[in-house]
Design brief:
This protein has one domain: Spore Coat Polysaccharide Biosynthesis Protein SpsA, Chain A. 38% of the residues are buried. The strands form 3 sheets. A 7-stranded mixed sheet has the order 5-4-1-6-10-7-11, sandwiched between helices. Strands 2-3 form a two-stranded antiparallel sheet. Strands 8-9 form a two-stranded antiparallel sheet. With 240 residues, the protein is of the alpha/beta class. Bound molecules: cytidine-5'-triphosphate (CTP) and the ligand C[C@](O)(CO)[C@H](O)COP(=O)(O)O. The ligand C[C@](O)(CO)[C@H](O)COP(=O)(O)O binds next to strand 10.
Length: 240
């Protein structure tokens, strides 16, 4: 993909790395009995695939898992059932994604580090995306994963649809990775319902956002059909 997305940078320094995996939502659009992060994907809860993707990258970040307090005991049971032993710090979820992320980053005292924020319900993130996001954020302060729109795009302006240049439209994914000191500062702002992701919080504070190349397989499980698609992707040739 052409500029401004970048996919290749040099190795990380010895800074400590963290991944805040947000799983504090209730999955209303999925309409399942348990929140979608616990649903099985190839026999393993979605959330475990997501944590494993970070664990298996050479970045090996310290994992901070944000879960609603009411599901902490359930998660513990799932870990026992699936013999899931990846070390992680468990933190209580918040009212919105913003509040959940804030709860997670508040548990990281180390300001001289890199923090990736990632949706628990994006279990197909590749090692390459994870590694590139830390490398790029170290160099530029932040790295926000994105893909170009594959469809034509139109915008409603005063009730009339107007075509946009799709070459200038990016669809935003996670991980979104930041220097910890900058992310912490941005998350001191009061909540706004315009905050749909971490990039929007950083931008509101005044930081320029840098995009890195994502992957169309890095889907967010939102509706029931997404689980079927994720299983298809998972069972085809593994990604790098
Ligand atoms: N209070 C919240 C809301 C969302 N999330 C997390 O943010 C990610 C993206 O959110 P979304 O897909 O919207 O999840 P839900 O809020 O669970 O789904 P819905 O909007 O359908 O209710 C998910 O991993 C979700 O668990 C969170 O940590 N805390
Ligand atoms: C953070 C995110 O996944 C980037 O695409 C997205 O903004 C989350 O949105 P949602 O409304 O919580 O699904």
């Amino acid at each position: 993909m052409s500029s401004p997305l970048t996919s290749h940078i040099s190795h990380l320094t010895s800074k400590k790395n963290y991944a805040v995996i947000v799983a504090g939502g209730s999955g209303t659009r999925m309409q399942s009995a348990v929140p979608k992060q616990f649903l099985l994907l190839n026999g393993l809860p979605v959330l475990m695939h997501t944590i494993r993707a970070f664990e298996q990258s050479w970045v090996t970040p310290t994992i901070v898992l944000v879960l609603p307090l009411t599901y902490h005991a359930y998660w513990q049971q799932l870990c026992d059932v699936h013999s899931f032993t990846t070390p992680h710090l468990l933190v209580a979820g918040g009212e919105t994604r913003f509040h959940s992320v804030k709860n997670g980053i508040d548990q990281i005292p180390d300001k001289d580090s890199l923090i990736a924020v990632h949706d628990a319900v994006r279990p197909l993130t590749s090692k390459q995306i994870i590694e590139t996001s830390y490398q790029y954020a170290e160099k530029h302060g932040n790295a926000v994963t994105a893909v170009k729109s594959r469809d034509s795009v139109r915008q409603l302006v005063n009730g009339k649809s107007v075509s946009l240049s799709r070459d200038q439209i990016y669809l935003i994914q996670t991980p979104q990775t930041f220097r910890a000191d900058l992310l912490k500062k941005a998350y001191e702002q009061p909540y706004s319902d315009k905050f749909t992701d971490d990039a929007s919080v950083m931008e509101q504070y005044g930081f320029e956002i840098h995009l890195i190349e994502g992957n169309h397989q890095n889907i967010k499980i939102t509706f029931p059909e997404d689980l079927i698609i994720a299983e298809l992707f998972l069972n085809k040739k593994p990604q790098a």
